[in-house]
Write a structure and sequence with these properties.
This protein has 546 residues and is mostly beta strands.
Length: 546
């Protein structure tokens, strides 16, 4: 009998034998055992997952308080889904036949930590006490990802925070009451990461080369990889598509057609929270409505729900965010339900569950009606921050909405004189906002109450076009258009430039519309590449930062 079974038996005997729970009363997302001492994780997908040894179990749970005893027949009826792997960020691992030490990232991805100096910078001076040996037989439970070449390639503390359930690590949808890890993470003494920044390399891959004009391209993260979402007219009208990639930018699964109505579907965005959700607007003869569709990791549709349809009004330019604290989606959009002749509208906000059920009433943010604009929304702890530019005054505004869906405050971020492209990202304490005005890029910080922190700051004085910003765990990364190429640089939380801008596209084709995204193990930038000289089609690019 394996060593870990004896250890489990010791703890279970110490705790006593719990009364057996009826099969119909056994909740998903819990720990179960039968007459034998082995403990399994019973996941929301209806499968049980095996702990290969006691050390793997201890990376997730410090005791056996939540173990439920079930019948042998019920246990035997549950299909085994595979082995549980180490909780990301809690321990490093190595195999007995290889001296390499690996950081365990989300999705059971191993990333080689190449030097002792780097291990100290990531895990502190006691790094060598945080290494466990993994049997060669269980090494196949993991995949090997890109090596960690710099402290800026990884934020250990953020990975520990992001992966608190076995479901999240395996990409399985969670029940309404998942079993969270109770590992003592105080063993981690993660130092401040202040080493000199290294120069990144970018590896470009084609995400989609189909000969159409791709519109509204945006990147999202899925576990250690990415999803590119866009719309094109390959089916006779605009339809929403998405394509998954792995951490290296190579495509996974087939291209997914999201929308299939006999009308134009546009302005889509995608999020992942254990399942894949795509939000878009759909046009009919009398109105534009907002849809959300839910997909599994295999790209198959799980459920479609009409989020909001306003009789004969127009709902346009939606954006949404998953609020981890509230376990709900926050959605913002422009809507003509209170406007005139379908031309003037207001900014609206709503909340829904992961199952598509509306929470509370829809909130009208703006009082005065305006011509069409495109809001952007992010989660700010339990609150929501919604940004938009007023079509008449050109003011860049932000609204703070609390977890009950109540408007707290509307503030002015900036007062440009023309329409600007802007982007926002949450760094864990504040929102970083960037926008371009007359070719210059400006930066501002907003706290979770919608108040400015400090003054606006000019950070780049050049011919800047469309841009994006993404917090990578240590600093803000910014990408923008300039002279038909995509340029990239980083700033700290005060807007101080950390490095000179770098051209990361460097092709003879015109490169536009950058989009940035951090995954659980890496970082990517996407953009459009105008590969046809006559402008009949273009190509979607994803570039992986290394």
């Amino acid at each position: 009998m394996k060593k870990y079974i004896y250890i489990l038996a010791f703890f279970l005997l110490f705790l006593g034998v719990a009364p057996q729970v009826k099969a119909e009363d056994v909740p998903k997302d819990t720990l179960i055992r039968a007459s034998l001492p082995a403990v399994y994780y019973y996941a929301n997908d209806g499968k049980r997952y095996v702990f290969p040894n006691e050390k793997t179990y201890s990376s997730w749970y410090s005791n056996f308080d939540h173990v439920i005893t079930v019948s042998d027949d019920f246990l035997a009826s549950i299909q085994i889904g595979g082995n549980v792997t180490y909780r990301p960020g809690v321990k490093m691992v190595k195999i007995t036949t290889d001296p390499k030490v690996y950081h365990v990232s989300g999705g059971s991805v191993l990333r080689w930590v190449g030097t002792e100096e780097l291990a100290i910078q990531l895990y502190g001076n006691n790094w060598n006490t945080l290494i466990d040996d993994v049997s060669d037989a269980f090494f196949t439970n993991y995949t090997v990802g890109s090596p960690i070449n710099s402290v800026y390639d990884l934020n250990v503390e953020q990975e520990v925070t992001n992966f608190t359930t076995i479901n999240s690590n395996k990409g399985i949808s969670q029940s309404t009451n998942p079993l969270y890890s109770n590992t003592d993470t105080n063993i981690l003494t993660i130092p401040e990461q202040t080493i000199q920044k290294s120069t990144y390399r970018w590896t470009q891959k084609a995400l989609n080369k189909d000969q159409y004009l791709h519109k509204g391209y945006g990147l999202s993260s899925v576990l250690n990889g990415y999803i590119g979402t866009w719309y094109d007219d390959r089916n006779g009208q605009n339809e929403v598509m998405y394509q998954r990639t792995d951490q290296l930018g190579d495509n996974i699964n087939d291209l997914v057609r999201v929308s299939s109505n006999l009308s134009d579907s546009t302005n889509a965005t995608t999020l992942y929270n254990g399942d894949i959700y795509t939000l878009w607007e759909d046009y009919s003869a009398v109105k534009r409505a907002l849809y959300i569709e839910k997909f599994g990791l295999n790209g198959f549709s799980v459920a479609e729900t009409l989020y909001t349809s306003t009789t004969f009004a127009t709902s346009k330019n939606p954006d949404f965010t998953w609020n981890e604290s509230n376990q709900e989606f926050g959605i913002s959009w422009w809507d003509t339900r209170n406007g005139q002749n379908g031309v003037l509208g207001n900014l609206f906000f709503g909340r829904i569950t992961s199952g598509g059920i509306k929470i509370g009433d829809t909130l009208k943010i703006t009082v005065s009606t305006e011509l069409e604009f495109s809001p952007k929304i992010i989660s700010a702890d339990k609150n929501y921050l919604i940004f938009w530019q007023e079509s008449e005054s050109k003011m860049l505004k932000v609204a703070s909405v609390n977890y009950l869906g109540v408007l707290q405050k509307i503030s002015t971020v900036a007062t440009p004189l023309v329409n600007v492209d802007f982007a926002v990202s949450w760094d864990g304490s504040n929102a970083g906002v960037v926008w371009n005005d007359a070719g210059k890029i400006y930066f501002s910080k907003i706290n979770n109450s919608g108040l400015k922190v400090g003054d606006n700051k000019e950070i780049v004085s050049s011919d800047a076009g469309n841009l994006d910003i993404e917090w990578d765990g240590l600093e803000y990364a910014i990408a923008y258009e300039k002279n038909n190429d995509i340029y990239y640089f980083e700033i700290d939380t005060s807007g101080v430039l950390l490095n000179e801008e770098v051209n990361i596209s460097s092709t003879s084709d015109k490169s536009t519309n950058p989009t940035l995204k951090k995954s659980s193990t890496g970082f990517a930038c996407g953009w459009l590449e105008a590969t046809d000289s006559l402008g009949r089609w273009d190509e979607l690019v994803v570039a992986i930062r290394q």
